[in-house]
Design goal:
Number of domains: 1
Oligomer: single chain
InterPro entries: ATP_Synthase_Subunit_6
Keywords: Membrane, Transmembrane, Transmembrane helix
Distance between the termini: 84 Å
Shape: rod-shaped
Number of strands: 0
Helix content: 55-70%
Order of helices and strands: HHH
Length: about 80
């Protein structure tokens, strides 16, 4: 066997033994999966939270008078 084949057999020996049809994520605990994916997803989650907070604050700051004066909510009416 070549050196590469020996290394591959070592790696294969360390991998968990799964059935022929099981995917590795189906046998992994949910918290383990969530912790691993959180390392990659945190920028998306932070960006989503910041954007949501900005939209929420803007929506709360609108008054009925602002809506009546808006050319976007009344496109065919003169102000």
């Amino acid at each position: 066997m070549s050196g590469v084949q020996k290394e591959m057999s070592k790696v294969a020996a360390q991998m968990p033994k799964l059935s022929k049809h099981a995917h590795h994520l189906t046998t992994e605990p949910y918290l383990t999966t969530a912790a691993r994916e959180a390392q990659y997803m945190w920028p998306f989650l932070v960006g989503f939270a910041v954007t949501g907070a900005i939209f929420f604050n803007i929506a709360l700051g609108l008054t009925d008078e602002d809506i009546r004066k808006s050319k976007f909510s009344n496109p065919n009416q003169k102000h």
